[in-house]
Amino acid sequence: MGDLLSQGSYLSAQKIGKGAEKFIYQVKGQEIPMHDPRLKTGVGLQYALSDYGADHMKAAHDPFFKDKDSVGVKEMKGLGILEPVSPTDMGQKKVALFKLLDIYWTVFDILGVCDFGYVPRSVGTCEELLEIICASTGWRTTWFELMKLGERSINMARIFNLREGFTSKNDTLPEVFFQGFKGGPLDGQSAINKKDFKKAIKLRYELMGWNPDTGIPTSAKIIELGLDWLIDEVKR
């Protein structure tokens, strides 16, 4: 049993069979972290769209943008984050916000920067981080250039996953999150509306410059990002 469970819940459930898959919470084979996306819908979008499966550190969490006094709204205007959005909202503003946050957090990953060091998670500003990058590399870069770097990384990972057999069908959440809470103070509340979720995923594809039906990066987006050497990968 220990050998079986050491392979993770996804592979374990496949080997057990008999409907065991219904009892595991995973995205792309990666277990869901502790943060329930029914209360943080942006986190849910990131779980579903992460190229390596559910990860609570794929972007900042929704409460950092819940009102006009939230640190994310006050300190990230330079990246186009201008308005608060409710943590449980699944509309177009939430989708656009988390598209930016996905790219921003990817820049952190590329640089090896601690996610807890800068806004919206902490007190270090975007401007201070840019100064540190310029000072340490001697490269007079800009946030425009850095965000394009993050976008290239996301698209390359998307194309890699496409080659390995992942499709838009993998960009989803376990069924339990489309159901309300059972018991406790939120009994029957806060289910993610599946129709709204699917619309949000489709809009996210469009905002990224991907085919809205397949989630495959378009040739135009690939050329824009200087990744034209990957065009043949998306035409297979």
TrEMBL record:
Molecular-function GO term, any one: iron-sulfur cluster binding
Domain Aldehyde ferredoxin oxidoreductase C-terminal: 1-227
UniProt-listed Gene3D superfamilies: Aldehyde Ferredoxin Oxidoreductase Protein, subunit A, domain 3
Database matches in PANTHER family: ALDEHYDE FERREDOXIN OXIDOREDUCTASE, TUNGSTEN-CONTAINING ALDEHYDE FERREDOXIN OXIDOREDUCTASE
Protein name as annotated: Aldehyde ferredoxin oxidoreductase C-terminal domain-containing protein
Organism lineage string: unclassified sequences, metagenomes, ecological metagenomes
